[in-house]
Amino acid sequence: MELDGRFAVVLGAALVLGALLSIYQHVYSQRVARRLTAEHQGARGSYLVSGRGKGWLRGAVVYLVVDSASSRIEAAEAMVGATVFARFRPRPELLGSVSNARERAGDKRLGDAVESAIAQYRSMRKKR
């Protein structure tokens, strides 16, 4: 095989692997969202919202379960990292009042994700 042919094969394999790993991460994210929904299904007036904070190398995705009666975050899980191998982890520091959740996030990308999720919560609440 020529050098050009090998490069094309390696490049194609890398693209396919990247696509498969991205699909796996998406399925994993859906599984976490379904689990949080099931855990808080009976809670009246609770919202499951998500947000993301993008960065050049690292990013963050957060799922928050917010109780609309008290405007408190009842459950929080976040995925922070640079690769498709990042995993959602419980974030107890985010539990509590919605008003100062961004400050409790610590990390800039996680703070951006929390802010995005809270904006989604406020938008959903206005519609009802």
Describe the fold and architecture:
- The chain is of the alpha+beta class.
- It has a single domain (3-127), classed as Sufe protein. Chain: A.
- It has three helices and five strands; from the N terminus they run αβββββαα.
- The chain has helices spanning 3-39, 101-105, 108-127, and strands at residues 46-53, 59-67, 72-81, 89-90, 96-97.
- Strands 1, 2, 3, 4 and 5 form a five-stranded antiparallel β-sheet that branches.
- The radius of gyration is 18 Å and the shape is elongated.
- The relative contact order is 0.16.
- The model has no long low-confidence stretch (mean pLDDT 88).
- It comes from Agrococcus jejuensis.
- InterPro entries: Glucitol_operon_activator (IPR009693).
- The chain crosses the membrane at residues 6-24.
- Keywords: Membrane, Transmembrane, Transmembrane helix.
